[in-house]
């Protein structure tokens, strides 16, 4: 599969289309809400067993917000990010991205909206194994039908900024765990998204590298009013956000 066909395949595949973008931040209403969750609940059911992970949780992310989320293992942090990013559907409640109710969109339209506005850093990177770091990072731009030249230049620039300028041609299996994580961060940022949802983005990084990645995210926040919602176990890094929320018993405080 070449890169173009891969990009098209991924454009059609909602589960693998996760990165996003727009250069300009559209101001919609006075509050400039980018992402809104209204009373979302999530119940996982398997046979007789059911787990209520999120219970009527509401959250608004405005333009330029920097929010950290902490919570114990199993408290539902990844579940929350997946719902906010349109990767999974709430059992109840609604999620609105750029003013649109995700549940009311077709799978393809939801994927395109995500590609336009959202960057997503998965807890377990989800890089495509058969593609190089450069190809993985340029993929969201290829999906948007940007030129190969521009996509590669932008991807190389972001990979440089996360310290992987010497690893452009390496495949994920040829990168260390922390390098994979940084490539995944570059992929989420390459499209200048309005909002970045990041699930333990620095979990595999040493303190210095984690600091460097946080600096990059804070710079982008300053430069383009990108909003960040970051899940982390690291309270030192969480405290660098403007707001720190704790997820416990299915709700945030
Ligand atoms: N697909 C699923 N089916 C059933 N239960 C699930 C599913 N996904 C998650 N869960 C359960 O939901 C709860 C929350 O999981 P989640 O992955 O959101 O936790 P987390 O806060 O991200 O944890 P961690 O810090 O370990 O990453 C867990 O108890 C988990 O077992
Ligand atoms: Mg998790």
Most strands sheet:
6 strands, mixed
CATH topology: Rossmann fold
Question: Count the helices. How many?
Answer: 8
Task: Give the strand line-up of the largest sheet.
Answer: 6-7-8-3-9-10
- Give the helix/strand class: alpha/beta
Radius of gyration over alpha carbons? 17 Å
CATH superfamily, called what? P-loop containing nucleotide triphosphate hydrolases
Q: Averaged pLDDT, please?
A: 87
Q: Any idea what the shape is?
A: globular
CATH architecture assignment = 3-Layer(aba) Sandwich
What's the domain count?
Answer: 1
SSE pattern, N- to C-terminal: HEEEHEEHEHHHEHEHEE
Bound molecules: adenosine-5'-triphosphate, magnesium ion
Distance between the termini: 46 Å
Which band does the percent of strand residues land in?
Answer: 15-25%
Quickly name the level 1 CATH class: Alpha Beta
Q: List low-pLDDT spans.
A: 1-30
Summarize the structure.
The chain is an alpha/beta fold and 253 residues long.
What does this protein look like?
- The chain has 253 residues and is of the alpha/beta class.
- The protein has one domain: P-loop containing nucleotide triphosphate hydrolases (Rossmann fold, 3-Layer(aba) Sandwich), CATH 3.40.50.300.
- Helix content is 35%, strand content 25%.
- It is built from 8 helices and 10 strands.
- A 6-stranded mixed beta sheet has the order 6-7-8-3-9-10, sandwiched between helices. It has a 4-stranded antiparallel beta sheet with strand order 2-1-4-5, covered by helices on one side.
- Strand 4 and strand 5 form a beta hairpin.
- The N and C termini lie far apart (46 Å).
């Amino acid at each position: 599969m070449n890169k173009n066909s891969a990009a098209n395949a991924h454009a059609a595949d909602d589960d693998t289309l996760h990165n996003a973008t727009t250069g300009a931040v559209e101001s919609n209403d006075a509050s400039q809400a980018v992402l809104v969750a209204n009373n979302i609940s999530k119940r996982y059911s398997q046979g007789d067993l059911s787990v209520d992970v999120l219970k009527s949780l509401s959250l608004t992310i405005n333009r330029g917000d920097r929010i950290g989320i902490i919570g114990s293992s199993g408290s539902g942090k990844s579940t929350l990010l997946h719902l906010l990013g349109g990767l999974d559907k709430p059992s109840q409640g609604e999620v609105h991205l750029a003013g649109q109710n995700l549940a009311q969109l077709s799978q393809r339209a939801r994927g395109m909206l995500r590609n336009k506005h959202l960057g997503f850093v998965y807890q377990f990177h989800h890089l495509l194994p058969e593609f190089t770091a450069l190809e993985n990072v340029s993929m969201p731009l290829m999906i948007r039908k940007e030129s190969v030249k521009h996509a590669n230049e932008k991807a190389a620039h972001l990979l440089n900024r996360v310290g992987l300028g010497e690893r452009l041609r390496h495949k994920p299996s040829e990168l260390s765990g922390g390098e994979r994580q940084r490539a995944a961060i570059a992929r989420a940022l390459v499209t200048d998204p309005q909002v970045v949802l990041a699930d333990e983005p620095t979990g595999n990084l040493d303190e210095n590298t984690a600091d460097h990645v946080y600096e990059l995210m804070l710079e982008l926040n300053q430069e383009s009013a990108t909003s960040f919602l970051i899940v982390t176990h690291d309270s030192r890094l969480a405290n660098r956000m403007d707001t720190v929320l704790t997820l416990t018993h299915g709700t945030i405080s």
